[in-house]
Amino acid sequence: xxxKKHFETEAIRMQSERSQFSEHSTPLYLTSSFVFDDAEDMRxxxxxxxxxxxxxxxxxxxxxxxxxxxxxMEGAESGYAFATxxxxxxxxxxxxxxxxxxxxxxxxxxxxxxxxxxxxxPKWNIETSYFKVDEVDKIESLIQPNTKILYAETPTNxxxxxxxxxxxxxxxxxxxxxxxxxxxxxxxxxxxxxxFGADIVVHSATKLIDGQGRVLGGVAVGKANLMxxxxxxxxxxxxxxxxxxxxxxxxxxxxxxxxxDKHCENALKxxxxxxxxPNVNWVKYPFLKSHPQYDIAKKQMRSxxxxxxxxxxxxxxxxxxxxxxxxMCSLSANLGDTRTIVTHPASTTHSKLREDDRLEVSITDGLxxxxxxxxxxxxxxxxxxxxxxx
Length: 390
Ligand SMILES: *Cc1c(COP(=O)(O)O)cnc(C)c1O
Known about the structure:
Order of helices and strands: HHHEHEHEHEHEHEEHHHEHEHEEHEH
CATH topology of the largest domain: Aspartate Aminotransferase, domain 2
Bound molecules: pyridoxal-5'-phosphate
Oligomer: single chain
Strand content: 5-15%
Distance between the termini: 62 Å
Radius of gyration: 22 Å
Shape: globular
């Protein structure tokens, strides 16, 4: 009898077959290619009559173990592992879109994803129309006869707004669109977009999936027929994840649930602390009652994630002073690390945008994004508190 195991158990116990050395922990398969018994074995393997590894740009035991776990965790049918999150996102578009197609996307998406929409997809005559996070009622009016993909992230970066996955699923279904969701901020532990109708889920594994700021990685998982297209596109265009990174990331998944639980516990305490602070205008965290989409967050997420957004009183200069006052937390562009990371988008990542363009994606001058880490909560609160007093 085979009982379906829990998320944490699968993350630990799903392993590639043991070799003749009976290793307990999956070894690293640093091999670019694989050998065949004879001409017939080779023919049948290339014809895909056999499930055998041929070449590590296609599959490798380490990348397969990693992606099989994510497929299971997201409730998907199939998947492919990429060198980076952007490789996963670009390959999804490259495989599923054709010249003349149209995309409808939320305006609040990761910066490089937005650059693909504005600078690169138009080279292949693929245009994108945008809705803002508070304009979901406009989505249907943006859909054209040639619209192929509905694209969104939730929670969004950096303002942690929440989009209603159930609503997006219904719209995609009604208009026969492919719903592609970037689930990076939530991880499959907190949120499973496929349950709400997503066709493809993409991730930057660089963030909470690694969780320790070591390696880059990306993932696309979803319906088997679509993933087949994405796999063939990728196997020919070459954005594969390295076996080394897959080996690291597969081990990271073994601790995903405990890490993310602790991240969320710390983040909620940070959000509550900031909400009561006199030098803070407002705080946004999906599991704070004051979050504008609190009810939606509760419906679709297990917990609120590790990103807290807040506004220091006084605008761009006090935002900069706050950052300079930080002693322990890191000033870095990454997120989802064991180390707490603080960023001030208006003076850094989004400084090239005009103020009204920043406001389009909810970035006010005083907005600070905290990626809450796994240090002791008192040390995190002390550092943020002393930096706010400055
Ligand atoms: C970081 C990030 C990406 C890009 O991932 P890389 O691994 O850096 O290529 C995409 N989407 C979101 C939401 C991200 O945070």
